[in-house]
Write a structure and sequence with these properties.
Elements: E1 3-7, E2 10-15, E3 20-24, H1 30-36, E4 56-58, E5 64-65, E6 68-69, H2 74-83, E7 100-103, H3 105-120, H4 125-130, H5 135-148, H6 156-159, E8 161-164, E9 170-173, E10 176-182, E11 185-190, E12 193-198, E13 223-229, E14 242-247, E15 250-254, H7 260-266, E16 274-278, H8 284-287, H9 290-293, E17 300-304, H10 306-320, H11 325-330, E18 331-335, E19 342-344, E20 347-353, E21 361-369, E22 372-379, H12 385-390, H13 402-412, E23 418-422, E24 442-446, H14 454-459, E25 468-472, H15 478-490, H16 496-503, E26 507-510, E27 515-517, E28 525-538, E29 544-547, E30 552-553, H17 555-560, E31 566-580, H18 581-590, H19 594-609, H20 619-628, E32 630-634, E33 648-653, E34 655-660, E35 663-668, E36 673-675, E37 688-693, E38 698-703, H21 705-708, H22 712-728
Parallel strand pairs: 3-4, 4-7, 7-8, 15-16, 16-17, 17-18, 22-23, 23-24
Antiparallel strand pairs: 1-2, 2-3, 5-6, 9-10, 10-11, 11-12, 13-14, 13-25, 14-15, 19-20, 20-21, 21-22, 26-31, 27-31, 28-29, 28-30, 28-31, 32-38, 33-36, 33-38, 34-35, 34-37
Length: about 725
């Protein structure tokens, strides 16, 4: 009995004689990591397709570790159901058992609901009505739902087997016992052997992707398609199917699969560079990356049809263990009219309904050029002609009408200059042969976990990660235009000529892992980050914070005429506007900004020191936070007002203990925070407050919730903080 490390936070343990194949930990793309280690492989059979794999999952006690979800069990569960055959009638892998989740009650219940939504989407006629569907639409949608799900919607508790681990050892199989020994720590015993399982990440550990990507530079065009994924949820060599629309230099995602951050990093794009996302549906190979998009310093626009948005609200809420209002806290939802052209700031987009087990849209995009419209079609998770024809019935209560089939097929076959198509096959994906005579200019065949075969190559083509199709080239330098927008937001009263003077400065690229400025350097320039990511490593404590577009290097130290106190290193290809320090300081004096900035510069530096406000927040946001920050002094024995207050308190000096009633449950140290949003926890036994300890007063920065509420990454970090409190106490 061996515990084998597969990847960070992911382990494999098997006892074949007890039919126990346990996956310990479940970060995104776990299945692909298991494939890399050959714990998942094809089983030779003549009667059916079948793979080996896990039949049980031990979940992390913590929903989130080091900023990322620890439990994303949808695709491992789908693998058990369909690749191993547990949910397929008559399949040899169907032995009457269900996929098995093991863990604490909070995590098992959250995963149960999240997997239920990932499997079914909207699960009742009433939910379709709530999503704005007419009676006829509800009837049609429900008929399709039944066809895809073998005429039955299982309850969450019936979909999976579950085992709750509390304080006592639990017998998983005869003579196989599992005991929780601490936070995220377990001991598994079998006969005379024991194995310790530790799912905690170290402070500097992150879940890694299962594949390697080469860095590619993205060109900002008027209208172009950048290809960021051609694989599916099983492809361990490529990201999942997805694209980027670059329109007027702005970045819009189409779907966000697992490890989307890694893909964007390889292209020199940070989360703060993303303007919006167009979402086709909520299966994890198109949804899991949504959890990265809520780490921005602005609400990323979320574009979807009403039914897709309804499923996304429910799934994200289930994953986070919150109600659906959490969606609007971290994203900016914008409903698109289905079967109509929607104008998104000049980019026209038409979503069309596509039959799938969960609510799904395909998208067509178009932009007018001097030679007419240029267009792109993105057909993710479509259905094959053969499967859809099998749903046709003369009985309107049992299937679909021929007219509906024709409408779907006409929508699939619309012309586009570039069209990307799901050809994954099977019951719920498209077939390349159906597009043999498609009229489009270029057909890209996607959503596979294998190379194209000879027949498919006669129909369409494949593309490499980071390659692009430029439909309308840029007529202006969008990077300098972006720089102009940033500078105007910093200095709204500055004259046009003064801004243009700064824009004449050079733009320099720093490849990933390049040092931009070393610790203790007396900066002679101010670097304005325009794209990509820069890590700032503090010299005093080694902490690292991520800086993105709109942040500056050397500005504050230039104001103080002091050397920088840390090292700046590009963590993804970064493009920066390099402005001589003396030029920038003269500019600020001329615009009457310098005195204001000097007043808050020390506060900005302090805020940059905090874990809550240090990463992924632009300087402009920090300036606004600093301008609204008040200083509060509390004496020993005082309590921070409000229990868990709505306003944010950041500890500058002193010592603070945290109490639940009369019981001390923790403490906070310098630059830690308290408050900032109503408690995320649903526990009824919490009566928490923060009390000043020791013999010296405490100094805090107090920042109004009204300033924080529209910064999703802050709310995300507060959610993590409360997930950790809940797991500990």
């Amino acid at each position: 009995m061996n515990l084998i490390k597969v990847a960070t936070g992911l382990f494999w343990l098997e006892i074949p004689e007890k039919d126990l194949f346990l996956m310990c930990g479940c970060p995104m793309d776990s299945i692909k990591h298991l494939e890399n280690m050959n714990f998942i492989h094809r089983i030779d059979r003549d009667d059916c397709y079948m793979e080996s794999g896990p039949n049980a999952i031990l979940l992390s006690d913590l929903a989130v570790q080091n900023g990322y979800f620890s439990n994303l069990a949808e695709f491992p569960i789908l693998h058990m159901m369909y690749k191993q055959g547990m949910a397929l009638p008559g399949h040899p892998g169907n032995k009457g058992t269900s996929p098995w989740l093991i863990g604490t009650s909070d995590q098992v219940n959250a995963q149960n609901q999240y997997i239920f939504r990932g499997n079914y989407g909207l699960s009742s006629r009433a939910e379709f009505e709530e999503a704005g569907c007419t009676k006829d639409e509800v009837d049609l949608m429900w008929n399709l739902k039944m066809k895809f799900n073998f005429n039955k919607i299982l309850k969450p508790e019936d979909l999976l087997d579950t085992t709750i681990i509390d304080d006592e050892a639990v017998e998983l199989r005869p003579d196989v016992f599992l005991k929780r020994t601490g936070l995220n720590c377990y001991k598994l015993s079998y006969n005379d052997e024991t194995v310790d399982i530790d799912l905690n990440l170290k402070d500097d550990e992150l879940y890694e992707p299962p594949y390697a990507l080469e860095s590619r530079k993205v060109s900002r065009e008027n209208f172009s398609i950048i290809h960021v994924g051609e694989g599916n949820g099983w492809d361990n060599t490529r990201p999942c199917m997805g694209s980027i629309i670059c329109f007027e230099g702005k970045i819009y995602l189409i779907d966000a699969g697992p490890n989307i951050e890694y893909s964007l990093n390889a292209l020199g794009i940070s989360v703060n560079d993303v303007e919006g996302i167009f979402h086709t549906h909520i299966h994890d190979d198109h949804f899991a990356g949504l959890t990265y998009l809520i780490m921005a310093d602005h609400k990323i626009k979320y574009y979807a049809t009403e039914t897709v948005m309804a499923t996304a609200r429910k799934k994200l809420a289930a994953l986070m263990g919150q109600d659906i209002s959490i969606f609007d806290l971290v994203l900016d939802p914008i409903i698109l009219d289905c079967h109509a052209w929607n104008n998104v700031n000049g980019l026209e987009v038409k979503p069309l309904f596509s039959p799938h087990p969960v609510e799904t849209s395909i998208f067509y995009f178009r932009v007018m050029s001097s030679s007419g419209y240029k267009s792109y079609g993105h057909l993710a998770d479509i259905v094959s002609s053969k499967i859809l024809k099998s749903f046709i019935s003369d009985n309107p209560q049992e299937g679909i009408a021929q007219e509906f089939y024709d409408d779907v097929w006409n929508s699939y076959k619309q012309y586009a200059d570039i069209k990307k198509i799901d050809v994954g096959g099977g019951m719920v994906h498209g077939e390349a042969g159906d597009f043999k005579n498609d009229p489009s200019g270029i057909l890209i065949l996607s959503h596979l976990d294998r190379p194209l075969n000879v027949q498919e190559k006669r129909i369409g083509t494949n593309v490499d990660f980071g390659s692009a199709h430029v439909l309308i080239p840029a007529s202006v330098n969008y990077l300098r235009l972006h720089a102009s927008r940033i500078l105007n937001s910093y200095f709204p009263d500055a004259g046009i000529s003064d801004i243009e003077m700064l824009l004449e400065c050079p733009i320099i690229e720093f490849p990933a892992n390049t040092v931009i400025a070393e610790d203790s350097t007396q900066m002679k320039e101010v670097f304005l980050i325009l794209s990509g990511k820069v890590d700032y490593v503090f010299s005093d404590n080694g902490a690292s914070h991520e800086m993105t577009a709109g942040s500056t290097v050397g500005l504050m130290n230039g104001l103080w005429n002091e050397p920088i106190k840390g090292t700046y290193r590009a963590s993804a290809l970064a493009e920066t506007l390099i402005i001589p320090k003396n030029v920038f300081l003269k500019f600020m004096k001329k615009t009457d900004v310098m005195d204001q900035l000097i007043k808050v510069s020390r506060i900005i530096f302090d805020l940059r020191n905090t874990q809550l406000l240090g990463s992924r927040i632009s300087n402009l946001k920090l300036v606004r936070l600093a301008q609204r920050a008040a200083t509060v002094n509390l004496l020993p024995g005082d309590t921070v007002p409000g229990g868990w207050p709505k306003d944010l308190f950041i500890l500058k000096k002193g010592s603070v203990n945290i109490y639940n009633g009369k019981k001390k449950i923790g403490s906070i140290k310098k630059w830690d925070s308290w408050g900032g949003y109503p408690v995320f926890s649903k526990r009824k036994d919490l009566n928490i407050d923060a009390r000043i300890s020791g013999k010296t007063p405490c100094d805090f920065y107090r920042i109004s919730y009204d300033v924080l509420k529209d910064i999703p990454v802050v709310q995300w970090k507060l959610f993590q903080q409360w997930s950790c409190w809940d797991a500990h106490y």
